[in-house]
Amino acid sequence: MRKNLVVAIDGYSSCGKSTLAKALAKKLGFIYIDSGAMYRAVTLYFIRNHVNVNDPEAVDYALGHIELNFHSQDYQSHITLNGEEVSEEIRQMPVSTSVSEVSANKKVRREMVKQQQRMGKSKNIVMDGRDIGTTVFPDAPVKFFMTADPKIRAERRFKELQSKGDTTTSLEDVFENLAHRDYADTTRKESPLTRADDAIILDNTDLTESEQLDFALDMVHQQLP
């Protein structure tokens, strides 16, 4: 394969984007970049440091003191925030509750897009997020847009939280959080969540992880040279 091939995966929260992206990257021998983790890590920094997302100067200052890096361990992608491993903490509800507001900030999005585009300049990558196929890599040769029934998405996310020891968040809390994030993601002014015209729709409401991987691999092999 030629260099610098990008597979872009966009879609709603808790649709299994990262699960598919990781599996695709492993099968293709590509690098997996979790763009959502980047916004979550920024959100975590804002929470810890009481950064007012509506204060442009505070946001600029904070972004100047955030260093994000990815590393691979046991075929999993991990993210560090200023050298600290935060892959688990960024998935907790405090971050989930605030990430849509932070990621909607123009300054935050533009900085993250710059970093994501740099990552894709010289490597074959699979990247998932909200605006990968529309804003970050609009020329990506393969794009997917993932969706699923909201109730199924909430149940998946709830089980994930339970498996990580969260006994305080209810299924109703998760459902409401996803509904809020869907609204925020699709209505924000800066790079809203939309399907690229040439994106392949992948509704995995009734698909297993292996079935969606097989579907995606088939589509990738049809599209890539």
Automatic annotation (TrEMBL):
SUPFAM superfamilies: P-loop containing nucleoside triphosphate hydrolases. The keyword Methyltransferase does not apply. GO terms for cellular component: cytosol. Gene3D superfamilies: P-loop containing nucleotide triphosphate hydrolases (3.40.50.300). Keywords: ATP-binding, Cytoplasm, Kinase, Nucleotide-binding, Transferase. InterPro entries: Cytidylate_kin, Cytidylate_kinase_dom, P-loop_NTPase. It catalyses: CMP + ATP = CDP + ADP; dCMP + ATP = dCDP + ADP. Its EC number is 2.7.4.25. GO terms for molecular function: ATP binding; CMP kinase activity; dCMP kinase activity. Transmembrane segments: none annotated. It is found in: Cytoplasm. ATP binds at G11, Y12, S13, S14, C15, G16, K17, S18, T19. GO terms for biological process: nucleobase-containing small molecule interconversion; pyrimidine nucleotide metabolic process. Its main location: cytoplasm. PANTHER family: CYTIDYLATE KINASE, CYTIDYLATE KINASE/PANTOATE-BETA-ALANINE LIGASE. Belongs to the cytidylate kinase family. Type 1 subfamily. This is Cytidylate kinase. The lineage of its organism: Bacteria, Pseudomonadati, Bacteroidota, Sphingobacteriia, Sphingobacteriales.
